[in-house]
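G., the chain you wanted modeled:
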Amino acid sequence: MPGLARSVGSALLARTAAAMQAVVVVLFVLNRFHSPALAGLTVMMASLPGLLVSPMAGALLDRVARIPLMALDYSVGGSALLVLTALALTHHLPRWALLITVGTAALSTPLSSTGMRALFPTLVPRPLWDRANAIDSGGYVVAAVMGPGLAGLAVATLGSTIGLVVPAALLVGAAVLLAGVRLPASVQAEPVHLLVDAGRALVYVWRHPTLRMLAVTVSVMNLGWGVESVGLPVLVLHRLHGGAPTVGLLFAVMGVAGIAAALVVGRLGSEGRERRFFSIGCAVTVPMMAGLAVLHSEALLAGCMILGGLASGPVDVGIFSLRQRVTDPQWFGRAFAVSMSLNMLGLPIGAALAGPILAHSVTTAFLAAAAVLLVASVLPHLMGDRSAPTVVIHAGGRI
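Predicted structure as tokens:
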């Protein structure tokens, strides 16, 4: 299908860069400032500002050409990493400058994350959405394999400072690949004020029972994954006395397991079973987090990460497909931006809360993550009417 291959390639490069950045930045902060609390705060600043402005970003995506906006975000992200590298090499990187640079770059991230997610249902016909979402989810887990592995290799060979240049280069490549993508004609947003449109998107998502359910349950789930994003590097460096390659390898192992799970679920189809997939996936991650809390063997930790990867495939495909099925196509940019930001809200909060807890006890942090994921596994069955048919809410009402 025209444009799909280039879009998938661009998404793969950008997500690999993001997966690299998530590991390299944490290792960079731990190596330079020796502070798990600052590492958690940095992870929060790398996403929270973008989540807060996501309604505005979604409104822009529905009224302005999406491809240039996505390329703009890749350029901003790459530039921020280069700025951090330059400041660190010249010894002009205080903690406040680190947080401001990371937070400023995060402001544009919804343009690419939401823009890419809105591209797939535009380029692919509805009967193939599950398979396209399996490829999309597979792209995430491939990035989860390649990104941490490349991050560990880059930090081990180049150091945590120069290692920041590698994800910056990948972001440039992602922008170049998008240059040849042409989107089919689509319905444009009504010509209203940008702030008004952003507010309408918030209302649209909140009054939609399915999108509201996703906002609550996925954000709770991501509280637990936020703990893991900071906790695993701390666990490896402090408890196992390992290095960056071990951190990258463990994240990569989880990604490998996730690839097969996503493709199997995409092949089987998720329609009508999305809540079940989500609940099962969250429930499976509970023993994974509990294992990370108490185990001291790299081999057993790798087994826990495999378990987490197997759980991620059904969750991702179920979330992606359900959100597409219940959203009016003319609201893809705005509704996806708000929905995705609400879904991801737990990640920076979990990372920020995990920092101080990890400084005190790694075990306590991961047990708390396990408890949060257990709660997330039952929320889809407590919110909304499971027997109700899938509905699409349009701007003018409900059909």
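The beta strands are 393-394, 397-398.

Shout if anything looks off.
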